[in-house]
Amino acid sequence: MSGPQTLDQEGSLPKLAIIAGGGDMPFRLAETCRGSGRPYVILGLKGFAGDQISAHPHHWIALGEAGKALDLLKHEGAGELVFCGRVQRPNFADLRVDWTGMKLLPRLAMAGAKGDDALLSFIVREMEGYGYKVVGPNDVLKSLLAPAGVWTDTQPSDQDHLDIKRAIQVVSTLGALDIGQGAVVANGLVLAVEAAEGTDRMLDRVAMLRQAGSSALRSSGVLVKMSKPGQERRIDLPTVGVETIRRMEQAGLSGLAVEAQGALALDQAAMAALADDHGMFILGFERPAS
C-alpha cells in the first residue's frame, strides 16, 4: 500500500492525526496545532476520549475499527500520527472488530501477551507499514518533556533522596518486566507499585493506606515515574500533571521525582505551584546508567 505524502505541496508540516484517548493531552496537542496553523484532525476513541474533541476537526472510532481508522486517515490526507491519552487495555476475546481488525487481531493478541510495550510497538510498526510516520506528543509540543532539577521552592530531604533511589530501583525492575512505570516508597518501604490500573489508582490505594492509619504514610513518601528500559518512546511515555499532584497530596506524600527527558509533564508551572502550596517537591532526575 502506498504511503501518504510526508510534506504538503508548500513543504510545511504534514497533517497530523491525533489518536485520542482520555485526559487533557489530546486537546493540548490540538490547541498547539490550531495555534500554529498546522493542519490536524482528531480520531477520538469511543469510551475514552472526552466530548471536548467536538470543538476540533474530529471523527469517532472504536478500538476494533482498524479499517475505519485507516480509511479516515487516507480521506483526511494525514501524514503523521500521534497516540496520546489514557486507554485501558482491551479484552481481546471480547473486542468487536471490523474486517481489517479481524485480520490484525491474532498478531495483536500475540503481541499483547508479551506485555504493553510489545503491544504498542506492534501498533507503531503496523501504522508505519501503511506509510504513516508515528511521532511522540513531545515532537508536537516540545515543552512536554520533564526538565532536570528541582522545579519547586520546596526541596527534597535526605530521606526523600534515599526513597527516590529505592523507588528508581523498584521501577527499573518493574519496567524490565514490562509491568509499570511508577512506584511509591516511604522511609525505605515500598508502599505501592503501578500495574495495569495506572498512576491515579495507585495513588488512591496509597491514600486508603493513609486513611487506615499506616505510620509509614505520615507526611512522607515519594512517587517516582520513569520510562521502561528500551520502551517505544513515541507512545506511552509516563505522564504527570496537576491531577497527579492533587492525588499525591491526598496520599500524604512529600514529593514527586520524574525521569528528566523521559516523562511528559503537563502544566509544569501549575504543577510546581500546587506542590509548593502543599509543601511538596518536584524533581527531574537523570536516568541512572544501566
Report on this structure.
- This protein has 290 residues and is of the alpha/beta class.
- A six-stranded mixed β-sheet has the order 6-13-11-9-7-8, with helices on both faces.
- The longest helix is centred in the middle third of the chain and has 19 residues, at 158-176.
- A hairpin with a 2-residue loop joins strand 7 (182-186) and strand 8 (189-193).
- The radius of gyration is 20 Å and the shape is globular.
- It folds into two domains: 16-142, Rossmann fold, CATH 3.40.50.20; 145-285, LpxI C-terminal catalytic domain (Cytidine Deaminase, domain 2), CATH 3.40.140.80.
- It has helices spanning 25-36, 66-76, 99-113, 116-129, 137-140, 158-176, 199-211, 242-250, 268-277, and strands at residues 16-20, 40-45, 58-61, 80-84, 133-135, 149-150, 182-186, 189-193, 222-225, 239-240, 255-259, 264-265, 281-285.
